[in-house]
Amino acid sequence: MRRVGALVLASGTTDYDVVIAGGGPGGAACAVALVRAGVAPGRVLIVDKARFPREKPCGGGLTGHCADAMAALGLEVSVPAIASASARVRFGSWSRTVTMQRPVVIIRREEFDASLLAQAAALGVEVVQGEGMKGYEVDAAAGRVSVRTGERTVTARVLVGADGVASMVRKRLIPREGPPIRLFKLELPARGYAHGDAMLYDFSPMAYGLRGYLWVFPVADDRINVGLMHYPSRPLSGAELTALLARGLGDLGIHLDASETARGWPAWGYQPGAAVAAPHVLLLGDAAGIDALTGEGIGVAMEHGLVAAREVVAGLGGAGFSFVGYRRALRRAVVGRELALDRWLARLLYRPEAYRHFLGLMMFDPKVLELYAARVSGGLVLADHKRALMAALARHVFRGPGRNRKVRALAAEVAASTAAAGAGAAAGGRMYDEA
User: How far apart are the first and last CA of the chain?
Assistant: First the structure.
């Protein structure tokens, strides 16, 4: 045993104290949090099958809660970034711009993830790229887990599954899954698109089949990050979703050529009751579930990393490695409360025809947009303002019929205005590459 500060750590019986499968923001954040808490950096190993920088479908927005997590970890944004101080919400000819209390910092995921991993390595964490986890076995009696990578087998006290949507750990803990959320992303030259520094959230494609939204975010070097998120309440193929992306972008005056291929990934939404831990093993980040309403994963993963690190440190300090309290700790943390609320809101808004009844609540109630903008900025915990949300729902009972008529009129307008773009959707549908 060795003592670091007030922490007693077991050593000498395993190769590492902690092996983290996955080097994305969640894995890097967890590793850094462990080191900050007193775990010797040489006793923490990160393995990832990819070599960074690697591609990731994401809008690249670092929200206020993400910024707070980075500050708590002592991590920096060391890559090109744009500070977006406003967001425009759109449905057809209707739009509203909301101001952020604190700008959302927009980065390229490829660069950002690599920089976080480098910052973890700079603290002394061992990072192995191009060598993913191939399997693992838990020996509870011996108090360890054996992790097989491409080249070797190592042992640790704890295995952290930060290995994304295809997580081997998740598949063992949650063997049966429903259909996933789908995310598609493409970066383009701005080509005259007047984006300024505002983020665009366009719900217009809901009028012709999408159950989610299309985004256009500014990135450095006069480029734009475009993509969409689709909730699985309506089954759509990758080709159909790519066609919807091309159609929605065309309505904004953004036209794709044959060389510009949107890439898609599945993702799992957070489920408060899902198994996110077992003896000596726990999940975080995309493996534990993203925000089902917005598709946000960066801040979620980093906040998960903080919660997971506290549980691991407690285990190393003598509390044991059953991790029976991790699911509850995750659920009670700010990130868990926000994810649970957004899961409920996603099911409300993204049901097959629910948008006709609830999209008007979001668009035409200024208080709802202000609350959500404050949440994205990190100025409040929306889950702690349920009374304000219930008041908005009560207002919608009385104002809903008029709002819903406006939504239906706008939907008809969208369908008419995108007829020309729809004629070229078949070409857009061929531009499809899903991981």
Answer: 44
Q: What is the pTM of this model?
A: 0.91
Contact 303, 317 (CB under 8 A): no
Burial call 103-142: b when 16+ CB within 10 Å, e when fewer:
bbbbbbbbbbbbbbbebbbeeebbbbbeebbeebebeeee
Quote the CA–CA distance of 136 and 117 in Å, as a whole number. 23
Choose the CATH number for 81-105+178-265+353-435 among 3.30.310, 2.40.10, 3.30.9, 3.40.50. 3.30.9
CA distance 351 to 331: 24
Coarse DSSP helix, strand, coil percentages of the chain, rounded to the nearest 5 percent:
40, 25, 35
Whether the predicted pLDDT of 364 surpasses 60: yes
Q: Does residue 254 have a pLDDT over 70? A: yes
d(CA 350, CA 146): 41
Whole-angstrom distance, CA of residue 264 vs CA of residue 239: 10
Nearest to 324 by CA among 335, 336, 313, 311: 311
CATH number of 2-60+108-177+269-340: 3.50.50.60
Phi, psi of 74 (to 5 degrees): 75, 30
Q: What is the pLDDT of residues 41-54, one digit of tens each?
A: 999 999 999 999 99
pLDDT for residue 195: 67
State both tokens at 186: 């493409």
Closest CA to 361 of 349, 347, 377: 349
State the DSSP code for 221.
T
